[in-house]
Amino acid sequence: MAHPQALLVLENFIGGKFVPCSSYIDSYNPSTGDIYCRVPDSGKEEVEAAVKAAKDVFPVWSSKSPSERSQILNKLADLIERDLEAFAQAESKDQGKTITFARTVDIPRAVHNFRFFASSILHHVTECTEMPTMGCVHYTSRAPVGVAGLISPWNLPLYLLTWKIAPAIACGNTVVAKPSEMTSVTAWMMCKLLEKAGVPPGVVNVVFGTGAKAGEALVCHPDVPLISFTGSTLTAQRITERSAPHCKRLSLELGGKNPAIVFDDADLSQCIPTTVRSSFANQGEICLCTSRIFVQRGIYSEFLKRFVAEAKKWKTGNPSDPTVDVGALISKEHLEKVRNYVKKAQAEGARVLCGEGVDPLALPPGNQKGYFMLPTVIAEVKDESCCMQEEIFGPVTCVVAFDTEEEVIKRANGVKYGLAATVWSGNVGRVHRVAHRLQSGLVWTNCWLVRDLNLPFGGMKASGIGREGAKDSYEFFTEVKTITIKH
């Protein structure tokens, strides 16, 4: 297939240099359906070169002091912030998200990730104990692990890639990263800034390609002792199997089927706009999005009426239009998958109150072939329906009624996932009781997505293994050693 010259062609970044690849895959602009970029289709050979570069420079990078590494991370943050608009434009075009979301969430958070770990690396302390009767002192020391394999997803491309790279290199590891082949552009743009920030060649290597080829080669590489992965539970199972022979340490941040529980004393003027946002932000393509809303029966009909009215206000269309709230979904296949969930719900007798198949979707002429879908609200869905059990990862949420606290806790916990939950109530005792009993790594009450990066992030059950955050990421990206001195 002939490609016009204007097509952006990415290259792998290995040992501080951009390296062409022997074969490429097409990447689409989700808002137009057109190919706009070619991404390296890397495999074993490219991963081998990247791991070698990372391994060779590890002694140099790991021997730098935390404050030296901190200065470099801060410089990289400054450079990304300087180019914030260019990064935001690229992220929006590559992923389909609105320019507003990329400008206000994705890129500022990527900058913050580097600044946060640049600071936190300076403040960790190690432990020490004494045994006077034995004449011994014990203390711990921490050292970087080696070459970190980092695999990041397509929904928040630079945001989640930097959430891994920043702690990995702050702790003194070197990195081979594989971003999603569907959203590789901002990672490639970041590579252009590494040298200027003072990152030595080989400390950060980025290999582009598919999970089946590049990801597999990275996970199976004997010289990569650690894998941090964000993505689907199914892929995580494969990573676990493939890395088991090498006894690698794994951090797996996986899917969610997150409940919002709205009690009859909730402040609906706060709850409804926030829950619309938690359901449809970034086209619902966030692992923390709300996709099951349990509303106490006394306020169910009022909630539903107001919630649907608010959802209908959200504008779907060209992501580069600053007035648009909902951009394009990542791919044609993903859009089809999300639509099929709505069809299944209808076939089971559920009611679609707004969005897909109910309201007309008017798109600008240039976006007619894009992968768009209106915010969709489904009611009267059974708990055992796939729409209530499986992660849809699109602008679809299900609203159901409940009667008692005991009942809703059981129903909220009745899925294989356990990533995030929100509880809406004015009763402080109830908020604490419910939060303690939900099987969920994160519980927000009367708010959503308010994050302190110092605290652990991660899920229970099929939502993952391990936690990320200041202390947790430090522990994951370092080896601890206990040293005993007899005096």
From TrEMBL:
Active site: E253
Domain Aldehyde dehydrogenase intervals: 23-483
Keywords on record: Cytoplasm, NAD, Oxidoreductase
Chief site of localization: cytoplasm
Gene Ontology cellular component terms for the protein in this record: cytoplasm
Enzyme Commission numbers on file: 1.2.1.32
GO molecular function, one term: aminomuconate-semialdehyde dehydrogenase activity
Keyword RNA-binding set for record: no
Function, as annotated: Catalyzes the NAD-dependent oxidation of 2-aminomuconic semialdehyde of the kynurenine metabolic pathway in L-tryptophan degradation.
Similarity field: Belongs to the aldehyde dehydrogenase family.
Name the UniProt record assigns to this protein: 2-aminomuconic semialdehyde dehydrogenase
